[in-house]
């Protein structure tokens, strides 16, 4: 067994061990008075968010006669997940956790385990007359309640139901259209056409500064990059909240059979293509390791425009306030057509939601606190509460529609308009995506947006229209893992093997692309397959196959 394989296995095992240690560390947690509620939550300090002093926090404290205290983490998925694990394992955890699914959240397996250990409280009996908005949301979107129900039949937490059209196709590629025009090129439609464009970006000085400083293709973390580049060869989903291997992102379904995509020759072909781009210097060396801040620094480089294309959900990597207009230069490229066709990842029902929970109440919370926390959650699910929670102060951060306003989905009546905030103040008055517990399609798509998609006010419309390029390219190999319930001791077994497999495939994929492993070597490929077998790949597939068969 190679050292790199040992490290991957150890990392996965460490998570499983830490989850198992929660009960031993936290049987008698300390608590605070009933009028003081402690919450663990991610905080975007870079955009002015201070949850202790936040305007919406003050709204809640006055409305519910309570003091809210926060233990915060960042929006960096890896760091946030690690801090949450440490918080739980320490025994000194808060009354509740309120998370962001695309940063970090509790998996279904974690919920069942922590619930069985008594670390988190069941919410079933707390949902009813005192939570009319949540109850109504469950009734209007049955899938929301199904998503909230854990494999053991209990509701241990509430997930985020975010019916976000553009989020449903996260693996997009944004390309500099000005560079294409300068070089007389068209948007690529196949993997080889993409190679031609990237080579031109690298060698033909499209930014016109006489320096070879162009970065043809970049990304942050590599998830969107691999999914976009590999899907023309083999179905490669990009899942939400998978920083710790909490979703089966490596699995597909072929003719009713669960498959580990990384065992297929098509997966090897896909990685070989991506590796060849990297070897030729067409992919940014930092694409698999840099965070969003590093990518944004390149997008907003003071030396001028240096990014040719970026694989991310939406073009957040460029500041709209830059005078050179680079904010308007990036447009989405449709899925590429390769041996497997042009397939983009599609999420369940179009809702940006994943099994598990972003909100849980711990056993540190008294009955009075549990009731108050559910009332706070219910307020954030209500229409007016949602507007204040996610966007901030009426008249400052958002306004009611006026005559002539146009909704994002023009078939809907407009309902609100977000007022763009200056840089560094976007989350000063709101909890932002922490509060996205129930954003159905009518709520999201009824918002007023500018009709000019290249203005900050038209950003949502820009995403909405770009996503139409991806709709209709869904793969028939999608595995509907969210419909598959695994319970009891098998769920415990699955949690460990899934974490190990998922983390290892992500690591090995990056190693193959960057040359640490040689994808063209039959020996390296055979070693990779053996590594998967040693980690329990056959059992991983078997567990999901048996559970899926039982529910069909």
From TrEMBL:
What are the alphabetically sorted keywords of the record?
Signal
InterPro entries named among the record's database cross-references: Bact_solute-bd_prot1 (IPR050490)
Signal peptide segment: 1-23
Q: Which domain of life is it from?
A: Bacteria
Q: Coiled-coil segments, which residues?
A: none
Q: Could you identify this protein by its name? A: ABC transporter substrate-binding protein
What lineage is on file?
Bacteria, Bacillati, Actinomycetota, Actinomycetes, Glycomycetales
């Amino acid at each position: 067994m190679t050292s790199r394989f040992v490290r991957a296995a150890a990392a996965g095992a460490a998570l499983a061990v830490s989850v198992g240690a929660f009960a031993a560390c936290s049987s008698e947690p300390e608590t605070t008075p009933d009028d003081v509620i402690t919450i663990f939550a991610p905080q975007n300090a870079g955009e002015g968010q201070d949850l202790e002093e936040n305007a919406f926090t003050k709204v809640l404290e006055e409305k519910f006669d309570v003091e809210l205290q926060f233990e915060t983490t960042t929006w960096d998925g890896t760091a946030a997940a690690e801090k949450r694990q440490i918080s739980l394992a320490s025994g000194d955890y808060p009354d509740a956790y309120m998370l962001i699914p695309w940063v970090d959240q509790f998996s279904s397996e974690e919920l069942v385990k922590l619930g069985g250990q008594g670390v988190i409280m069941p919410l079933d009996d707390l949902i009813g007359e005192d939570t009319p908005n949540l109850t109504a949301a469950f009734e209007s979107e049955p899938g929301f309640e199904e998503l909230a129900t854990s494999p053991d039949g209990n509701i241990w937490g509430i997930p985020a139901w975010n019916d976000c059209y553009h989020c449903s196709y996260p693996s997009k590629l944004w390309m500099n259209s000005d560079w294409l025009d300068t070089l007389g090129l068209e948007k690529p439609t196949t993997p080889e056409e993409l190679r031609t464009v990237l080579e031109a970006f690298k060698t033909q000085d499209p930014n016109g500064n006489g320096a070879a400083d162009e970065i043809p293709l970049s990304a942050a973390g590599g998830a969107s990059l691999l999914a976009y580049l590999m899907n023309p060869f083999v179905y490669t989903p990009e899942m939400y909240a998978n920083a710790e291997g909490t979703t089966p992102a490596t699995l597909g379904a072929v003719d009713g059979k669960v498959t580990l995509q990384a065992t297929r020759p098509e997966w090897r072909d896909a990685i070989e293509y991506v590796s060849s781009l990297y070897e030729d210097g067409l992919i940014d060396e930092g694409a698999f390791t840099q965070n969003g801040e590093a990518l944004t620094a390149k997008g907003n480089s003071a030396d001028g425009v240096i990014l040719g294309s970026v694989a991310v959900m939406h073009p957040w990597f460029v500041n709209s306030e830059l005078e050179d207009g680079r904010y308007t230069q990036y447009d989405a490229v449709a899925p590429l057509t390769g041996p497997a066709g042009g397939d983009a990842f599609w999420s369940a029902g179009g809702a940006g939601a994943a099994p598990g929970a972003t909100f849980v109440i711990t056993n540190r919370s008294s009955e009075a606190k549990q009731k108050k926390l559910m009332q706070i959650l219910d307020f954030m699910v209500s229409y007016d509460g949602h507007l204040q929670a996610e966007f901030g102060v009426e008249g400052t951060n958002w306004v009611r529609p006026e005559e002539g306003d146009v909704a994002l989905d023009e078939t809907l009546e407009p309902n609100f308009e977000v007022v763009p905030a200056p840089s560094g103040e976007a989350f000063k008055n709101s909890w932002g995506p922490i509060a996205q517990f129930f954003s159905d399609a009518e709520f999201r798509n009824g918002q007023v947006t500018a009709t000019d998609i290249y203005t900050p006010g038209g950003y949502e419309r820009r995403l909405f229209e770009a996503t139409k390029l991806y709709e209709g390219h869904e793969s028939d190999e999608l595995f509907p893992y969210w419909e598959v319930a695994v319970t009891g001791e098998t769920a415990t077994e699955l949690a460990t093997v899934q974490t190990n497999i998922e983390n290892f495939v992500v690591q090995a994929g990056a190693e193959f692309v960057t040359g640490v492993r040689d994808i063209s070597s039959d020996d390296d490929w055979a070693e990779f397959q053996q590594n998967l077998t040693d980690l329990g790949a056959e059992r991983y597939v078997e567990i999901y196959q048996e559970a899926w068969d039982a529910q069909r």
